[in-house]
Hints:
The protein is of the alpha/beta class.
Amino acid sequence: xxxxxxxxxxxxxxxxxxxxxxxxxxxxxxxxxxxxxxxxxxxxxxxxxxxxxxxxxxxxxxxxxxxxxxxxxxxxxxxxxxxxxxxxxxxxxxxxxxxxxxxxxxxxxxxxxxxxxxxxxxxxxxxxxxxxxxxxxxxxxxxxxxxxxxxxxxxxxxxxxxxxxxxxxxxxxxxxxxxxxxxxxxxxxxxxxxxxxxxxxxxxxxxxxxxxxxxxxxxxxxxxxxxxxxxxxxxxxxxxxxxxxxxxxxxxxxxxxxxxxxxxxxxxxxxxxxxxxxxxxxxxxxxxxxxxxxxxxxxxxxxxxxxxxxxxxxxxxxxxxxxxxxxxxxxxxxxxxxxxxxxxxxxxxxxxxxxxxxxxxxxxxxxxxxxxxxxxxxxxxxxxxxxxxxxxxxxxxxxxxxxxxxxxxxxxxxxxxxxxxxxxxxxxxxxxxxxxxxxxxxxxxxxxxx
Length: 450
């Protein structure tokens, strides 16, 4: 059977891969799946700022309504705000119309459980089967669903974040923050949250605009030149924060204008959370940097690795009652609030750590060990992926190299590690290599690429 969902839902170019017909079909399949118990279902739906949001959203909602599900339209809001709203309103499920960090021509759909966690493979496979078999459960004419609108999600979300940090400490510190909303969903949340935290705020690209005229909604260093320059003009008194398109991630800029990679932020906050809880379990994907494991173990915690994908990490955190978790791309998960990546909560927690420690972000980042990561890819036809992976694993075992097969194959070497992982959506293998210095990291990458 063809595959519909990837690690972050369904995504594609608008009116090509991601069409209204596809959105309608997914809505029908999701509604049919939700109605298995014959109970009336309530589904929250929201979006980021993409120009195609209404087209995709209402096509998707039409599918839900036709199966008898009621829909609450939340408009534009950050993904984690919608995920929090699901629990707040005791909804049965949710859906986010977003393509996250992808270019403006893309859009997508992420399906969410009642827990607020994005759905994972088992449930998605059932929904895929309904979609491809087209065995939809249409409601009778007098049982179709109703659609209503509720725009209180961002307000409830902001209040929830404020209740989980030390407001007094942050307000006393009076931090200065330059925030780049990337014209995305963060524009309706981040500047307002920062103001209520008592920050002096400089907002960039804070007008919702699905064309993303400032830069693509991926907070890579090359996309954040304006933010970095603005931080530097503050003379060492401000930090920078950048969101992706749906604001479930946050990337930070230190007071001197240095770009802080996501693994550093993850490690920095992990150290704080493990200390605060006097130990505990930290969960992250197998692709995360060694620096995270270093600081977790140093502070008395344990590390559990999972396959790549924030929903997988989140589900494992819930099962294992982990104190913290996340990914190396700036996606931090705070179980005290909810089990999903949360850009605004990450922003508030970093400000709290700075305020209570009396240290600058640059000083805190310097406490995290530095490693160098290289990412590359190599072409491999879909039908040859499994055989290629098994051959690689067999060769590594013959060499006596320690190997993990949680997701792909990760080999531990004396001078670093290499992860070889088949892509779930492209005819390629992704190769991650990490070492203490860039040259060794690149050499490892080239060695295992060949």
